[in-house]
UniProtKB/TrEMBL annotation, chains A, B:
The gene is proS. It comes from Deinococcus ficus. GO terms for cellular component: aminoacyl-tRNA synthetase multienzyme complex; cytoplasm. InterPro entries: aa-tRNA-synt_IIb, aa-tRNA-synth_II, aa-tRNA-synth_II/BPL/LPL, Anticodon-bd, Anticodon-bd_dom_sf, Pro-tRNA-ligase_IIa, Pro-tRNA-ligase_IIa_arc-type, Pro-tRNA_ligase_II_C. It catalyses: tRNA(Pro) + L-proline + ATP = L-prolyl-tRNA(Pro) + AMP + diphosphate. Its EC number is 6.1.1.15. Homodimer. This is Proline--tRNA ligase. Keywords: Aminoacyl-tRNA synthetase, ATP-binding, Cytoplasm, Ligase, Nucleotide-binding, Protein biosynthesis. Consists of three domains: the N-terminal catalytic domain, the anticodon-binding domain and the C-terminal extension. GO terms for biological process: prolyl-tRNA aminoacylation. Catalyzes the attachment of proline to tRNA(Pro) in a two-step reaction: proline is first activated by ATP to form Pro-AMP and then transferred to the acceptor end of tRNA(Pro). Can inadvertently accommodate and process cysteine. Residues 45-292 form the Aminoacyl-transfer RNA synthetases class-II family profile domain. One of its GO terms (molecular function) is proline-tRNA ligase activity. It is found in: Cytoplasm.
Amino acid sequence: MTQTGGKQDKKAQQYGVTPQSVDFNDWYNEVVKKADLADNSPVAGAMVMKPYGSALWENIQRWLDDRFKATGHESLVFPTLIPMGFIMKEADHVEGFAPELFTVNKIGTEELAEPYVMRPTSETIIGHMWSGWLNSYRDLPFLHYQWGSVFRAELRTKAFLRTSEFYWHEGHTAHADEPEARAEVRQMLDIYHEFCRDVLALPVVRGEKTASERFAGAVSTFSIEGMMRDGKALQSGTSHYLGQNFSRAFDVKFQTREQKEEFAHTTSWAISSRIIGAIIMTHGDDFGLIMPPRIAPVQVVVIPVGRKDNFDEMVQEGEKLAAELRAQGVRVKVDKRDGVTNGFKYNDWELKGVPVRIELGPRDLEQGVVVVKNRNSTEKETLPRAEAVGGMTARLDGIHDWLLSRATEFMREHTVPVDDYATFQAKIEEGNWVLAHHCADAACEKAIKDDTKATTRNVPLDDAEFFSEASQGACVRCGKPSAYGKRVIFGRQY
Amino acid sequence: MTQTGGKQDKKAQQYGVTPQSVDFNDWYNEVVKKADLADNSPVAGAMVMKPYGSALWENIQRWLDDRFKATGHESLVFPTLIPMGFIMKEADHVEGFAPELFTVNKIGTEELAEPYVMRPTSETIIGHMWSGWLNSYRDLPFLHYQWGSVFRAELRTKAFLRTSEFYWHEGHTAHADEPEARAEVRQMLDIYHEFCRDVLALPVVRGEKTASERFAGAVSTFSIEGMMRDGKALQSGTSHYLGQNFSRAFDVKFQTREQKEEFAHTTSWAISSRIIGAIIMTHGDDFGLIMPPRIAPVQVVVIPVGRKDNFDEMVQEGEKLAAELRAQGVRVKVDKRDGVTNGFKYNDWELKGVPVRIELGPRDLEQGVVVVKNRNSTEKETLPRAEAVGGMTARLDGIHDWLLSRATEFMREHTVPVDDYATFQAKIEEGNWVLAHHCADAACEKAIKDDTKATTRNVPLDDAEFFSEASQGACVRCGKPSAYGKRVIFGRQY
């Protein structure tokens, strides 16, 4: 998508990363490995999160966890295994997940009469537990979530995006009535949206999934969708209204205020380690990652620039500068590596996407200045040390804003309203999202997918921030009347 | 162990908890359930951690995680599954773990030619990954850890103590030589000891395990051992020097400074969710739990004591008081439940072991006082509000100290040096630890276990804080010379 000149290509070769513009897929895989985010594992479909990736995931967890607690949710820990019979109880659920299940049929030397599955998601076992905990309307709502991993077979592995074991939180709540449950579904979708926009600098579209893209067992599924720099969509979070489907299957009922028996209305919602894929593919460039500053494991890297005879002294000075930045609440690392060139260090931290680099040499020290370079700029600035330190939070916020507006602009530029099928196919092929009217017929959606590999991403909500205008029209493929009263987003997806 | 009069028995019956002194096992199971720490699950051997238990585990994780990072360790995330063949590579390891393994032999509809096991511990897969990451001595040390759960078949489940799936961190480090690796093993043992003593108020004995109690594949295993209020031991953390056993099995080698090829020296260490069992069984009493204040999810509970017409007002006043306490860094909860009696609330929070209760009634409010009760006392104090708030941190520290000295005294009282086998058997039967000389012969240890159900807990280190005096003597059972130059701790264990 991006245009790169000969100079950038050379630089990219120097790092050993294929430029984005040459092969987006190779760029992604190389960046993930070389930035120390993740590695392949000897387990089919599973990855290893390395220190830099794990630190990023921890920051993501910390922010979301604080928010869940602040909105009254409680964490619990449910088993990794689920009795096979549980998965069978909700008809749509079993149809959706059966082909992907990991089956445990032996413990020690004992063959199991009824096997267990490794959880693909936990609605079933949580429903079972709830039925034992719930008696009266006074017990509700249950506002629960857990952090952990889940297991769904994947043939073609891609770190963070498609792994057989992936990492997430899953929220599960139970309510006395539908309006309260639906308000929860919306609340969590909005928290996800806020997190993406204000912390990760990711513009995402809030909307409802069409019937064929719903979670297996849900009444309504809502998602946030982001656009990657190759024009593909990445579903970055989901929030489901499950109605009484799971509560009926697992007998989650309670006595109402009016002394009647009623099944609970339940919800579930999740953001997974896929979101790291979204960060990489929304913000990265030919030089590697660009970490959104508010979630970056390292916000500022200090490079002591010394010769052999004064390197240790410059490292010490670097530590002093780092301490001043830490006192401002900034996450800083001093690169103390000896035996590698400054150029190597610069490239390494650019690849890792650290938002700000500070170079500190003996002459800078004498003059009371430092050299500052933002990851999203090619300019170096020489600034009085106090100004660099005091202005760091504002500088990081500036990089956040820059990333968010670049990504927003990109998404807007690559999203086009289309009313005829030939143009639809061409625009999808060029790597855009298409805003089109649709009849809501599943067979028609399927035909579009077969023709173009594009699926419905979502139907933007009225206050979705993007692409939410009401309009009428005819289905872009079959010509039947539009079913949604607005255009639907179609796109290829990860 | 504890003496309880008729009045306490009655009170305990009122809560519906069997007194400790009547049946320690029933007491434990009932407290775990009624305090909302955990529940049984439909998965054989697995538990569900409920909100109060999960909040406690989160606090434990937070403290340890900060400490690991402060000592230079990095978190990573490895897969839950391990190829069966990996477990087979280290001879002692496979012998130790084979009977407990969960086997996955089917993914989707595909039967696997080589099955996976759900990790019982991760030395093998981490060794495999390290062999790909390690080249030169410059890459070392690897200071890694991960949080997660592991799977070992358990027939007789008991929440936190024996569950097929349990929760832990596992530290894994690789070093260029043995002294550095052994220093790491000791550092982590000391961090565990500090955590138990200074945060959980648990006195624990640091020592080395005898050969027959070593981790499967270790050269040396060190443990911290605590004493429960029924006199049994609970191994509360372990730190292993693995020598080159796993690095040879997984080809974890590097080029030394002198350009030679060498296998790394590795370590592993862990504290698991069993530690919650130790907290319960060391500090609890007939009334329920007593939470050590520094880790307690709720340190202070405020009970607004109002009548129907002023209950809402008292809840508001309770919130004001809670805000003042939070400003002191105290974790507070206001019990706003309507429709239950104050007595019910008092009992409920005593059962949950909240260290301090504050009652706030309309008359107290007028007079500018509050009623304060420590969980470890039967006295209520009426204090000026400002004094109660300002003194809360010191009060919590006082409860910590009280718990630690009570547990230390109990451990000292119930640990006896013994030199003849008849007394050994009697003292074990009475619920003590015995300090005895031993010949170090595995068959002799086994005979003692068969006779008494007691095993060696550990051989206290020279600076173990407890029971570390050097001495010579004859094996308490067979009369051969002592092998350790000091007495070994024997005890029944969880």
